[in-house]
Amino acid sequence: MTSAPRWNTIADELGTRGFAVVPSLLDAGACGDVRERFDDDDAFRNTIVMERLGYGRGVYRYFRYPLPSLVERVRDDVYTQLMPVANAWAEALGGSDRYPATLADFLARCHASGQTRPTPLLLRYRAGDHNALHQDVYGDVAFPLQATVLLSEPRSDFEGGEFVLVEQRPRKQSLAHVVPLRRGDAVVFPNSIRPARGARGFFRTTFRHGVGEVRAGERVTLGLIFHDAR
To answer: Which among 73, 93, 110, 132 could bridge 115 via Cys, Cβ 3.0 to 4.6 Å?
Structure first.
């Protein structure tokens, strides 16, 4: 990873907007190392061709345990930084769930509930590919935030392929957020819902995320989901 992100600023932005960009979470060398793993069949437990399932167009692959050391370290470090935000969100929404200080302890909770399959993944999009709006909920135990790291350079490696968030607000029309990223940047966003402050306190908004059509080239991302799947 590059120089440490300003996580206090990122936490403030998550509280205000529900999502935030982490600039240069990975340097160019790390992006290349992770990106090259895509064709290493031994590294993955499952491969999904999105078009076959109506999810969009493109291919994504879930890593198997043990994760590559870089992916494991980044997942662990980002969880540690986001855990206070997750607990603040849970309190704001009146929930009883609280998230432990370490990812290892949180994964133990997942595994005790039968969620034992790793969820970090690589996603590859080529010209004409896209990802339909969706949520990544894999069981009863879930962490409220996740992250996507762009491993390719816009305008150099690919054209198009914008990261899109759609926020459904109560009694209002949905709000679309198009999030510009550079290689190595991460976007942190809600897994499902987030607390938004209103005149009478907090209320819930619902997020879905996707990727616009890639017009040319190849776009590869690393998805960091902190709960495991059934």
So the answer is: 110
pTM above 0.85, yes or no: yes
- Write the burial class of residue 22 (CB in 10 Å: 0-12 exposed, 13-18 middle, 19+ buried): buried
- Going from N- to C-terminal start, the domains of the chain cover 7-224
- In CATH, the number for domain 7-224 is 2.60.120.620
Handedness of CA 18, 202, 103, 49 (dihedral sign): negative
Contact 89, 144 (CB under 8 A): yes
Dist CA 137 CA 144 (whole Å): 10
Strands 186-190 and 175-179: unpaired
Q: What is the pLDDT of residues 29-61, one digit of tens each?
A: 999 999 999 999 999 999 999 999 999 999 999
Q: Do the beta carbons of residue 89 and residue 99 sit within 8 Å?
A: no
